[in-house]
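Continuing from the previous page of notes. For each protein in this section, the sequence appears first, followed by its C-alpha cells. Read the first protein now.
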Amino acid sequence: MPQVLPLSLGARRPGRIRPELGPLNAALSELGNPHLAYPSILVVGTNGKGSTSAVLDAVLGAHRVRTGLTTSPHLVSVEERIRIAGQDIESANLERLIGRLTAFPDLTFFEAITCAAFLAFAEAGVELAVLEAGMGGSWDATRVADSVVAGLTNVGSDHPSWLGASAIERARDKGGALRAARWAVLGPGVDAGLVPALGAPHAVAASTLVRVDELDGDRVRVSWPGNEIEAALPLPGRHQLANLELALALARAAELAGIAPALEAGAVVGGLAEVRWPGRLGECRIAGRTILVDGAHNPEGAAALAAHLERRGERPNLLFSCLADKAVREMAGRLIPVVGEIVVVELDDERAMAIDRLVSAFPGARRAPDLESALGLLPDPVLATGSLRLVGRLVELAGMGGDR
C-alpha cells in the first residue's frame, strides 16, 4: 500500500529531478545553514553507496562518534532515510521538520528530505554526518554540505540521460564530489581507466589507507598501520568486500582530516558486528516461506548477484520487477542463466515498468497481477530482485518494516 507521507512531503513528486543546487542553497540559507553545523563524509557512486554508508556509520558509532546518516531510497518507511546515533528519526520529529519546509514549495522530494536531514542533524548535535548521494556527484542535493571527505564506490551505467551516455561523462559528473572534498578516496570498484576523467588528482585508493583481504567463508582480515583484525563480513556477498574497504578507508581519511578519532581494533570489530542494511541479499519470511531479496536494479548489480549465486551453487526461482527507466534486457541477460522458473509482476508505482516489457525481456516468464499471486506461482527457493521498491513491498508484506 502507498505510504502516507508527512505534511508538505506528500505533495512533492518523488521522481522529480532538478540538476541545480541554487534553490536548495537558498532555502538552507534562510534556515540558518544547518548543513554547515558539523563536518560530513559524502559517499557517491552507482552501486554500493548505501552499504558503504551503513558500514561507515556503524564503525564511527562504535568509536563513540555521534553520527547522522542520510540514505536513499527507503524500503518501507521514509523515516529510514534519516538516522541519528544509529536510530531512525521519529515520525513526529520528521513531520515537524518537513513542516518547516512549506515555505519552500519548489523543493523537490529529495531536496526536502535532504534538507530535513540537515536540520535534524544540527538540532541533535551530531559530530559527524555520513551522506549517501542520490544521483551523480556534481549537483546532487547532498553536495551542498561541502563535505570534508568524499568516497567513490564505482562508476556504472545508471541514469545516462542525467549523468551522461558514456562512462567517461558519468565519471566526470561523479568526480565533482571528489574535486570539492579535502580528502577523496576511490573504492576498489573504480575502473582505473576512468580515474583521469574524475578530475581529482588528490584522490587516493582505499587500499592505501586500509586493506581488506578475504579469508575462508565469510570472514575478512582488515589491516591498517599498526593494526590487524579478523572479523565477519558485515553484509553477505563477495561484492561487499569493496564496500567494506571503502567504508573503513573513509573512516581513516576522516581521522587524518581531523574530524574523527583514530580507528581502534576493538571498536572496528564491534562496529562491523552491528551493521544492519536490509534488502541486500537478505531474507524475509512471508506466509511461512523464506524469500531471498536483493536490491540489484542495474546491469552491474545483476552481475554481482549472479556471481554470488554461481559461487554458492544456488539456482533459485526468480520474482522480478523494475522501474521503467532501467536496462531490463541487460539485467535479464545476467540473471536468466542462473535462475530457474521466472515470474514477473508490475510494481504499484507511477514509475513502474509495464508488464509487457518485463515479459518481453524474460521470454517464457509467467506474469502475475500482484506480489501475493507471484509468490504463489513460484516453488521454493525464491529470489526477488530488480528494484528496491519491490524489495520494500516484500519486506512490508512480511511485516519486517521495523527491522533495521
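Done with the first. The second protein uses the same format. Note its length before scrolling.
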Amino acid sequence: MTEMAHGAAPMRAGEPILPRWWRTVDRWTLSCVLMLFAVGLLLCFAASPPLAARNGLPPFFYVERQAVFGAMGLIAMLITSMMAPATIRRLGVLAFVAGLLSLAVLPAIGTDFGKGAVRWVSLGFASVQPSEFVKPVFVIFAAWLLAAARTPGGPPGTLISLVFTMAVVGLLAIQPDFGQAALILFTWMVMYFVAGSPVVLMLSLGGAALAAGAVAYNSSAHFARRIDGFLAPELDPRTQLYFAANAIKEGGFWGVGVGEGQVKRSLPDAHTDFIIAVAAEEYGLVLVLFILALFATITIRALGRLMRERDAFIRLAGTGLVCMFAVQALINIGVSVRLLPAKGMTLPFVSYGGSSLLATGVAMGMLLAFTRTRPQGGIGDILLRRS
C-alpha cells in the first residue's frame, strides 16, 4: 500500500540510489531547509555569545554545538529521505513505542534544569528532550492506524489512534508541557480530518480541547500565569514577552545593525524560544519575512504534492508532518509578537537545541521521502485492490 507516491516519473532499473534520490526529491524544499539552517546558525552567532559569557563558557560555545547538532540533523534528514515509505512506517511504529515508554518514565528519571517542567533527560555531557523525538514518530504511528482503518475488514484504527493520542497528550501535560500536548492533539485532528472524519465529531473534539484548557487554567498556576500575562492589557516589563516585543519594535524594517541588538543580553532564551526577536531587532522585518517565506514554501509545496497522493498512509503521514512543522513555527513566532500566550517551543531549524535539530531533521527527512516523485498506479488499480 505504501510503495506509491506523488508523480509519474518512471523507475529506471538498476539506477544507483543517490542519482535516483536526487532525481525524485523535492529540491525546492531541500533548499529551503538548508537556508533555514544557515539563518539559524547566523542568528546563533548573534544571540548566544552573551549567554556563553554569563555561563563562563567560550564565546562561540553554543554556535559550535549548533553547528555539530545541525550537521547531525541534516545527515539524519538525508538518510531518512532516501528510505522507502514502508521502511519509515515500520521504524516509526517501533520508535513510537520506545518514545511512549520514555515519556512514561520521564517523571522518575528526568530533570527540569530549574525551569519548573520535567522535560529533559540529562546525560552529563548533553541533555535529551524525549517529546521532540516522539512527535514525528507519533505522526507515523497515527497515520498507519488511520490508514488501516480505511481498508475493508481493517482494525478500528481510528479509536486505537485516539487512545494513544490521549496517552501522549496526558504524559506531556504531566511534565507540564501544554504546548507540545496541544500540538500533538491538533496534528491528530488534522490527520483525522484528512482521513474523512465527521464534522460533528471534529467539533466535539475541539470543544473537549477547550474544556481541558479550562481545567488546566484552574488547576495549574504555571498555565494560568501565562494565560493571564497574555490577556493583560499591559506587558510586565520584567517578562521575556516584554523584552521580545520591545526588540521587534526597535528593529523596524532594516534592523538596528549586526551585533547592535540588546535583547540577547536580557533574554535567557534569546537563542531558543525568542530567536525571532533577535532576528527582528538586528536584521529587521526583511529577515523575518524571508524566514516566513521559507516556512511557507516548504508547507505549500509539501501539501501541493500530497494532495495528489493516492496512498492513504503517505498522504496522512505527510500531511501530519508538514502541519506539525508549520504550526510549531507559527506558535514560536506568534508568541514573540504576542499573538499567542507564552510557550517554550523552538523555531524548527533556526532555534538552538540539539534534540530539536535532530528530531526536526528526521521529521523533514520523512516528509521528503513521502513527497519524492514515484510512479502512481491508475485509479482503477487502487479501487481494485480495495475491493
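What the second structure shows: The chain has 15 helices and two strands. The mean pLDDT is 85. We return to this in next week's lecture.
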